[in-house]
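Tutorial, part two.
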Amino acid sequence: MLSGLLIVLLPLVLGYLVRVRDPRWMAPINHGVNAAIYVILLLMGVSLAGLDDLGGQLSRLGSQALLLFAVISTCNLTALWWLSRRLGLTAGTSAVVAGAPTSKFAAMLGSLTLVAVVVAGVVIGLLLEWLTGSGLFALAERLAEWVLYALLALIGCQLRNSGMPLRQILLNRFGLAIALTLAGSSLIGGLLAAPLLDLAWNEGLAMAAGFGWYSLSGILIGDQLGPLLGGVAFFNDLARELAAFVLIPLVIRRHAALAIGYGGATSMDFTLPVIQQHGGVACVPVAVVSGFILSLLSPPLILFLLTL
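Running the prediction step on this input gives:
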């Protein structure tokens, strides 16, 4: 199992070792990450189509994702509420972000697009099964595995060249405290949810270790535990982002740490414009540091937990 962990972590480490000196190269790297995510989610949908009793399995997927989301969110909100009362972090003056979404629907459009990609994959898988039989499902899983290796290498390169020095991260006590609180409470939630979902304790922890990074957690879990649990992880973390878009404007003025933390890994990208719009520029460095730490922690933690 450790050899499997090393095989998957190796591309991430190799990518992290690559230092991009010309900023112009970051654009194709970012496009490569996005393209790989779409391809893998499409292939995950194709694999889901190969499950026996697809309707029943999808119903089970939805109920398990909802249960996991409810347990983890309860733990997250409780811990972050406690932290926000002690941290002393306050939101600043609101500011309009250039290019930021002008509505919650616009902000959620990217998330909904990824859901549409998975659904399209299921439809394509059903059509392929009707036309050719089930032989292509194994090929889809193998192809997804190789694209995953490429994705991890690109993500490692992104993290290395994100412009976030380690010193800057460790010195931001607000971002560090929020990230550790979100991570710890999520893992507690995963441990509590494991018996309810009929999962081993380490599998429950791994399902909770996406920290909102749905495009990666679903892929890593699906590669190790199959497309059904990969779908559960994907929709659990996707629900976090969708809920964050609604929650952040409501609570960030009184509980800034809670609002920033609940976004999880997405607080450094997808939910950042909403955080800045409603919490002001003072919240931006805290959100970026918190999201960066969670993004750095999530992939190796998921893979490690699945080897236990």
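Residues 54-87 form the longest helix (34 residues). In part three we will examine how such features are distributed along the chain.
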